[in-house]
């Protein structure tokens, strides 16, 4: 698999994840210097009409955010049914400007490090993510991780 074929496959995969989770936005962030990919910029975004895009948001230092530090420390999915009351606070812009009310973040791990993550956002209201929705995220993360390993790291 090449980065270009992976990108196309991931767009389809994330569109399916968007549908199966009834979310309003799904994003992929990934570090891969040979392609110019970096986590501070969204690589792929699937969103409902009228939902603010994150594609042009590059001002937030992603790896310094509390939610991403959780991913780096715990190396497991972060589930936040209500970001307003969550113990690990997302950046204020995510709730104010980008209207996130609940989210799931699934880390993409490469050799014990977080290379990126998939985000699933509900922008309508807080949402208790079901075990099935969490499973759909985990499957998407596993697929992206497996694909990525075929061309990133030999």
Describe this structure in words.
It contains 4 helices and 5 strands. It has helices at residues 3-20, 66-74, 92-96, 131-152, and strands at 25-30, 44-47, 78-80, 102-110, 113-122. Strands 2-1-5-4-3 form a 5-stranded antiparallel sheet, sandwiched between helices. α1 (3-20) runs antiparallel to α4. The longest helix has 22 residues, at 131-152. The chain is globular, with a radius of gyration of 14 Å. The mean pLDDT is 93.
Short recap of the structure:
This protein has 154 residues and is an alpha+beta fold.
Q: What's the layout of helices and strands?
A:
Blueprint: H1 3-20, E1 25-30, E2 44-47, H2 66-74, E3 78-80, H3 92-96, E4 102-110, E5 113-122, H4 131-152
Antiparallel strand pairs: 1-2, 1-5, 3-4, 4-5
Helix pairs in contact: 1-4
Query: What is the oligomeric state here?
Result: single chain
> Count of helical segments?
4
Mean pLDDT: 93
Q: Strand tally, please?
A: 5
Q: Tell me the strand percentage band.
A: 15-25%
C-alpha-based Rg, rounded: 14 Å
Q: What is the ordering of alpha helices and beta strands?
A: HEEHEHEEH
Please mark out the parts with pLDDT under 50 across 5 or more consecutive residues, or reply none. Answer: none
The named CATH superfamily: GAF domain
* Number of separate domains: 1
